[in-house]
Each structure stands twice: as structure tokens, then as C-alpha cells.
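Q: what does this look like with xanthosine-5'-monophosphate bound?
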Amino acid sequence: MIIVLNFGSQFAHLIARRIRDLGVRAEIFRYDVALAEIMVLRPQGIILSGGPSSVCASVHPSVPKELFELGIPVLGICYGEQLMARVLGGMVAQGTIREYGKEEVSILKRSGIFKELKAKETVWFSHGDVVTELPPDFMVTASTSAVGIAAFANLKKKLFGVQFHPEVSHTVRGNEILSQFIFEICKAPKDWSIKSVQGKILNHIKDMVKDTHVLIGVSGGVDSLVAATLLYKALGDQVHAVFVDTGMLRENEGAEVVASFEQQQFKNLDAINASSLFLSRLRGILDPEEKRKIIGHTFINVFEKHIRRTLKAHPIKFFAQGTIYPDRIESAQPSAHASKIKSHHNLSIPDAFGFSIIEPLRDLYKDEVRRLGVALGLPKELLYRHPFPGPGLGVRIVGEVTRDRIALLSRADAIFREELKTSGEYGKIWQAFAALLPIRTVGVMGDSRTYEYIIALRAVDSIDGMSADWHRMPPELLQNISKRITREVRGVNRVLYDITQKPPATIEYE
Ligand code: XMP
């Protein structure tokens, strides 16, 4: 296993994902994890991530010198590199020229982690500080025109520092650097694969649940679908899945979820159509927060009522959640230095019923969950769907939610997604959807004047939803979508494309 010590960089997850993709288990810990805890895990290597701090500041996140004396190879990246230099007796200064973006580095020593590289390589920098003096017994291994020490190493002690980021794709040979570190230097075994992970998860589920029963709430989302499928594979009819149709789902979503369970011969799925209850409670409600609260509470009410019924017939002891690795690392160990932490929308059900929680996907990244889903034979169409918020179309209809508005929006949204898929654009976008603006504007159709709603199209590029940029959509495609929506959806005579970044806007409309 390789341990990544996180100094508050968004890239810490990227480092772990790259290593897992190379076939080695990688786990992230906060930078101040106790050395004893690291030793228990017996990692083959340690990577110090980048981070927003500066080692030149009087207070900065650090690690004890002993970390470098455990006999475990260490690779420091960016902030991690500067920290390694500083802790081991070198000097770091605030750079006069800010290295930022793509740069060419000269590889001075083509050994150690640089063994496979050429004399010049393109790499990606993101930090202003530079190492100005090496710690004793280290050598410079790379430099740029502006930075004398862009990388350093002590081959004997297996300690390496790079000021640039090998984990980002702009560093062209970044994977070779990481691969050289984990396999040639750390001698880590290549034993992390979807197949091995699947086996471990199934055993873990069986060991935990034994002959009791598990309840899982499923939505149209990837995580709950894959989690339910794993549970079913491990436990068969001891698993009970509940699907609450809020009436605010994407077009055909309810039917598709039910079909995907039927295909697996999953017996205990209860699909509850609660749309009338949701809509009656939302009648006349305009405030976004109030809408979200009503949807959340109603969901819990429906769910709890169903659980009480199920409990009469089955010995349910566990409640399964589709939590994935980034959720857990962010919420359980909030890094004091991470600039932003995503809020979660967890249910309060386990507490209310005294259930133990089981999280089959807790160690996996989203792309690993998808690959696992493929290995389990689930339809790619469902696995590669864009994210969809819990409150559904409710937060995509600005103002009051009514049955007519839902019908209108879900059709426009389906047309948008259909066109994105046919044109091949869907897979290039992180999230795309239509929203309904309840303002009416004037249009013309044939000889008559119309006075109808506006549909806003939102498509964003993002890594994790915390920040986003609008997707540069081919104009012809936008034209097609607009034409189809205004022709096929009665009640809409105008289509807008949203070109706002997050921040300042959010991805959803409410
Ligand atoms: P915002 O609108 O906050 O959205 O920029 C960021 C990402 O989170 C999703 N989102 C939600 N997901 N329940 C969810 O499960 C929610 O209440 C919720 N609100 C926003 C949103 O779709 C986007 O991917």
C-alpha cells in the first residue's frame, strides 16, 4: 500500500487515483496522522501531497523528521517537496518568478524516479516557493530556466522531491515517474484490481451481515445501484431495496431503475410512487430552501413508513449507504487546510431505527465504482449517467413545482440529453440538464403570437462539482436542441444556454 499524506490539496485524491490505476492500493491520510498509525499499515511508500500553505510561513502544516527515517521511500510533491527540504535541513524561499502552468524541465539525473525520462520533459507547476539549498546528502535531479532545484533526491535513502505535479495529465510522463516510484523504488505489489476489490467487498459484506437483513435506499444514481447489486450478490434475498419515486425524476427514470433490478432477478425491491404526496406538500411553495426542506422531510417520512412495514416481516439490522471514498475522507477527516469541503445529504434513518451502517463502496473512487458496475454486468447507460441531485427536478424548476411544469421540463431535459448522446457530446460533459424559468416571454408561431416559458440549458465541466466551468458546446448542436425543444415541447418558446461559472453561480438553479 502507498500512503498519501494530504496537506490540503485537491490533488491528493488525484495522486491516489493514479496509483490505484497503476494497480497499487493507495490511501489518503491527513498530514498529521501519528507515525505509529502509519507503521501499523506497513506501507511500501509514502507520498507527501501539495497544498495551499507555504513552508516560509511561521505556522505551516508539517511532519516529524522521523518520517524520513522509517526506511520507507518518500516522494514529496510541490508543497511536500518543499517541506521535505525544509525538515531535512535545506532552505526554501518564496520564488521571485512564479512557476505556474506548463514548463520544460531539464532532467539532470536520469535515475531513481526519473529513470525512464528523456533529457527534457514537459511538466506542470503550481507553486511559487522554491528550494534554494539542498538538505545534506541530496543531489539536484531536475531544473528549469527559472528554478535551479526543480527536483532532488537521495537515492540511498530513497527520498525524492519534485516541485512539479507528476499526477496531473499536463505532466506528460507523470505516470512513468509515479510508476517508477511505486514499483522500482517502493517494490509495491500490483494487486489492486476491480476483480480483487470485488472479492474483498463481497466477503466483507457476508462477514458483517451474516444471516440478518439489510435495507438500502436506491435512486437513479450509480452508487446506490452498484452498492445494491453487490449486496444482492453477497446476500441474495436478505437485501431489501426501496425506491421512492418523488415525481421529480428524469424522464423514464423510475421505469429504468425498476427494470435494472428486475434484470438481476432482484426480488425485494419496493418502488413507491409518492409523487402526489410530494406535489401536494409543494403546492404554493416558492422559496428554494423551503422547497428543499419539504422534499427532504417528505422523503424521510415516506421512507420511514415503509421501513416500519418491512421490519414487521424481516430482521433488518443494517442500513446500506452508497458512500464512496472521497465523501468519507472529506467528511470524516476534514483537513484543516482544505479550502472547501462538500456538504453531504445523509439521511437520519440509521439513528432512528438503531441500524448499523454498511458502506460497500467506502474505499472506492467514482470511476472504480463505475468499472465495478461494468464487471457486475450493469448497463453502461446507467453507470455513466451524469450526477442528479436528491431533490431532482424540484431544484430545476425555479419557483413553484407543479405537475404540468414537471412534464414540460422532463421532456425538454430528455431532448437535451438525447441530442447530447447522439452527437457524442454527453461523455465529454460532467453534468448537463435543462431548467425551467417560470417567466413567460413573447414569441411567434405561424401567424400567431405566443407567450410561454423559458428553458435554460446548463452543461458544465467539473472535477467534483465544487467549481465548474460552462461547457463549450458546438453551436450547431445548441441550435438543434433549441429547435427541437421549441418545436416539441408545448409551453416553451425560448431556449437559453447558461454561460455562468461556479462560483459565482451554483450548478443547480436552487
Ligand atoms: P451546486 O448546485 O451546489 O451542485 O453547485 C453541486 C453538485 O451537487 C449536486 N447537488 C446535490 N446532490 N442532493 C444531491 O444528492 C442535493 O440536494 C444536491 N444539491 C446539489 C448537483 O447536482 C451538482 O452535481
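The pocket of xanthosine-5'-monophosphate is lined by residues 345, 387, 389-391, 431, 465, 502, 506-508 (CB under 6 Å). The longest strand covers residues 431-445.
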